[in-house]
Amino acid sequence: MTTPIILSFEKMLAAGKDNALLRFSLGNEYLKAGDPANAAHHLKQAVVQDPKYSAAWKLLGRALVESGHPAAALAAYRDGIAVAEAKGDKQAAKEMTVFAHRIEKQLSATDEG
């Protein structure tokens, strides 16, 4: 589903205003619209453009989980935890650690099953 705000952000992107904040915003809006695959695409670009953007790492992990890629989500959370800890962003690191542990449990249960 495309919303008016997604269309607005896509127009900005098409006009060459590509930056990490715009990609993060697009990813967030695609997640809200129920399109985690497109969200993950834009969030990956956000962390490429700004590897220290811990909020983008956290949202990328969520988008990857919701699009059915738990192993990739776990990797994103681990990278995001390292970034957040380096920046002193304790809350983001704590949240991503919880999410990563949930995925680890799911993946180990799948391996055992």
From TrEMBL:
Pfam families linked to this entry: TPR_16
Alphabetically ordered keywords of this record: TPR repeat
Organism annotation: Sulfuriferula plumbiphila
Listed SUPFAM superfamilies: TPR-like
Domain of life: Bacteria
PROSITE patterns reported for this sequence: TPR
Membrane-crossing segments per the record: none
Keyword Calcium: no
First and last residues of every TPR repeat: 20-53
Name assigned to this protein: TPR repeat-containing protein
Keyword Glycosyltransferase: no
